[in-house]
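From the shared-data thread, chain only:
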Amino acid sequence: MTPNPALGVVFHWLGGLASGSFYVPFRAVKKWSWETYWLVGGVFSWIIVPWILGSVMTSQLAAVIHETPWSTVFWVYFFGVLWGFGGLTFGLTMRYLGMSLGMAMVLGYCAAFGTLMPPIFHGVFGTQVMGTHSGQVILGGIAVCLLGIAFAGKAGMNKEGEMSEEQKKETIKEFNLRKGILVATFSGIMSACFSYGLDAGQPIRDLTLKYGTSTLWQGLPILVILLLGGFTTNFVWCVMLNIRNKTGYQYVGGETREPVKKGESRRVPVLSNYFFSALAGTTWYFQFFFYTMGETQMGKYKFSSWTLHMASIIIFSSLWGIGLHEWRGASRKTWSYLFLSLATLVASTVIVGYGNYLSTK
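Structure, as tokens:
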């Protein structure tokens, strides 16, 4: 199949839309703690949906995984576990730095490390990236993406600066710049491990193609193993929180033990919560479903897919924030930085896509 970078960019936008939207169904979950609905959603996003779609869209999934060299399975799973740590410490970054600065730092590290480390590791950064016109254009697109992330962080910092002291204490009660930078660095680097896991899974791609899987779906078997690693980290942590916070009862219903408003029912809406958590988890999975599709269209510069993914996430999560009125009351200057960020990030996806297009000529 001939690569089609323009189609690849569209797939990455769809993945970014899924990633930027997945948390919306969680807003409908009632009387469940974070660890409960996160784990239920995770069972769908990291276990059930990857196996279902992997089995339906690829050929002989179980046989492919069985024949995969143990070393490949280990490294893909291992990078999944490390990526899981990145996701868990992302929340800690928000506690220390706030949403805007924290997200900008984590995604900046994640975009840079996740995009550039694979070609550096394979020893082709100097020849295929720095040494070619198409590679230089892609590097320019990556730089523009990082600039867009910086603008997003500036917009968020301005918004926080416009809050009252009471509002600031509400949002960043534990602000600590030194701790925040250390945790954000760890979270960003660990989150980039997802990119390394996809790169380490190349033997799985080769095997599934050998079994007759379409080129478009070749990345799905990798997700089965990689997401299992992420599930392991999150499962251990969520169960520990269930035990510490005594919230395990929430999985089977009953009445909430948390305070409720006067006249409000204490009964936990279990079926509704499972439905919306499953919807959120399934939506989350589709970010990487489309990611692996987009990766197949980027030719020899498929490492640039990670930058497209990061840019798309920020674009669509920002649009959701606008739609849900999270920026209501912000100043004109803050809105200017927000729209500058969106325009810069869209431009970065076009530049990276064009660089990949040049490589096909």
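The two ends are 15 Å apart (CA to CA).
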